[in-house]
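> run fold XRE family transcriptional regulator
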Amino acid sequence: MFAGVRLRRLREERGLTQVELARILTISPSYLNQIEHDTRPLTVTVLVRLSEVFGIDPSFFSTRDTARQLAELREALPEAAPGIPLAAADLRQLATSMPEVTDAVIALYRRYRDAMVHLEALTDSRTEAPALMPHDHVRDFFYRHQNYIDVLDRQAEKLAGRLADDGGRDTRGRLRDHLETRHDIRVVTAARQGDSEMYNFDADKGLLTLAADLHAGQQAFRMATLIALLEASDSIDSVLDAEVWPDDTTRELARLGLAHHFASALILPYTAFYTAAEQSRYDVEVLAEQFDVGYETIAHRLSTLQRTGMRGVPFIFVRVDKAGNVSKRQSATSFHFSHTGGTCPLWNVYDAFATPGKVDVQVAEMPDGQRYLWVARTVIRRLGGHGTVAKTFVVGLGCELRQASRLVYSRGLDLTNPEVTPIGPGCRTCDRLRCPQRSSPRVGRPLLVDASRGRFVPYPTKTPAVPGEA
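> ok
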């Protein structure tokens, strides 16, 4: 592998010169200089020696997934000069060789974007600034941790083991008993009146009230979340304290997200759930039946199976509505959609609305050539009976095509030469200039306005595509 920037950073952090590090690694200074400048690769022998001497994980030198960074760089750096877009190869080189600089550029752009949103809100009384920043920050936090928090997951699994040893009741019954015996909290159910709360915890009375129309899995999750806040608060605080949060709202949102992570691990303990997932080849509906929880809960938990030594398929989890809004997005890998301009209409999560309850499978290819297997299915939530408005979403799970053979959903697909649907990260940053489904022009591309001719492809541009564009 070529990892010159990372090796140079490691050397400088240790306060070593090239000559000193070369002597430690028993190689020549000229050879080390070539490795640091990416003219020679980092060999296995040198990598093993580095791991032995410095006690670091070899993954420190691995090339980072750059698809997500590239999508955000497209937004942050659309042009090299007015009307001249930056080449995809240049952006990819930046993301690959200098990931920390890339993150700094993206962070700077986000601050600029947030400032512009608030400026628009202040200068136009009809506009309200969208409260997206806290969610974006928390989403990025989980992405940096590959959507897995080891200390919380293991603590929850240990507690689940102790609860299972205490009695033969189902998960919901064990959680109810634990709240009552350990915390003197009663759990009751009550019918909802109109649009009332799904759950409510009264700390003074020691009473957790759950809506009677929540199914067993939802009730178990709410009880597990309360247990997380009561028993894992110190662990959650230690995770939060390791980060710098922009404000208290974002920190509290992250706290709730960490409590939800603990709750998922409590009702779906890692080892048992991972084993069942592998045995069923990640069949979401089979797992939902086996663990008596909903389709969405299973899909979300599958996206968190990234424990060292027992890694599941690295999934991307999304939830979208009919209007194209992505209300949930968690990822253990690099797939990323743009923050601006909506998502891609060719993505199968939108086709799934046409066939409620049916699993839709798609092999999708991003503009950079990365291919993914996507599985999408509707989930419906209803409050009340006939005539009430239901909440309908599509839950999507995606993984890199090289992992697809581990999934039951790849059955019957030719994974070596699959039928591929070209998708993109959102029209405003997508490089597929000839896509007939484009809903807005590509940022950084001046439009070609010609009254004498018309084209099937919308938003034609004046300049030819740069290298790496389609």
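The domain at 4-61 is CATH 1.10.260.40 (434 Repressor (Amino-terminal Domain)).
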